[in-house]
Batch of 3 targets.
Target 1
Amino acid sequence: MPNWCRNHIEIHATPQIVEEIQTEIKEHDRFLEYCAPIGEWDYELACETWGTKWDILTDDSMRLDIEELEDDLHIINIETSTAWGPPLKALAKLKQKEGVHSVKCHYIEDGMCFCGVWDDDEHQRLEYNPNDKSTFEKNKYLTEYWNLNGHALEYDGELL
């Protein structure tokens, strides 16, 4: 069983692309295969192509929201988990598709104490120690986004 990485993915794209993504997730239980197709699943190829070994979790913990901005631009927000780390390689491939305007991913892997944000190829990553508050000073944006200060104040249910 892997450590799960939580991902908040925001995609700005044409209505057609947003509909295709929604269909892939809801009807076929996959997203990364849409972003960067590998065909028949292969461990090495999945890791190399997607940046993670399995496609996204499409269970009850997943959230999918669509916002219609204009006739030619919609936003799809996906909150899901992937094995070990974020699917940044697959998202980079998605960004190259015609009709995709931008892709952003916030992610956190609590078990290995790292988090980050990837925004159209710009990447910030923070490795933190929940017992050392000084590690949160390295990136205030990510610390606030994931509420890491609150995370660090509690250890085994007791305030530090």
Target 2
Amino acid sequence: MTEERRFSPNSWRVTGLVVALLLLIGVGIYMLWPAPGGGPVPVREEKPSLVDAGTRQRIDAWLEQNHLNPFGDAPGTHYTGGTPLYNEHTGERRDRYEYILSKHPELKQAPGRK
């Protein structure tokens, strides 16, 4: 005589829960596993400013006197990407002082000099 084995409804629930738990663990491991070639993004070193120290001091004083943000614009100005110095299309970054001088060329010369 052949004996039939049947699973009870509770055993199916337990089996389903174990399978679901294993799937969740597998997805978690997949999400946390580092991507090939991944790792920290190298930080680009800032190039030293080509603008001389005297001009930089004059620009900083001018920004403070005129109550402007660090980029020479009104406080509260918002920029795509958070800064006007980074071009998202080309990946290039500009020096802050060179950026300000491109917008305000009158700051290139010291007062009283022509």
Target 3
Amino acid sequence: MPTERRRIIFADDEVVDAALSYCRATGIPVPDAEIDGQSIATDTDCSLTLTFAVASPDQRDEVEMGSDTVLNALVAFCRMQSIPLPKSAAKRLEAHAGAVSMVFDMKRERSSVNGTLAA
């Protein structure tokens, strides 16, 4: 059975934008401050840590997102940007050339050769 694979590669700023939008949409608390830095674990699971420049040391200054949350954020980002995504495909994150990529694997059903050939 053949498998088709597609990959969408995201720039770091797109991953951050997707993460912030997802946090706001789902109620994940985010500090009301500028982003001071980000760390995307492209060497392991593509998790994300956002660091914020907070005014007080008592405020939370980091937001950590696991790879499943980052994947959901990127799916929502693609929908908002009208980037078509295959519905029935298995989706996962992978590092690709130092960036985050969303990979889709689609298994194609084997069709009958006899029914498609002209006699």
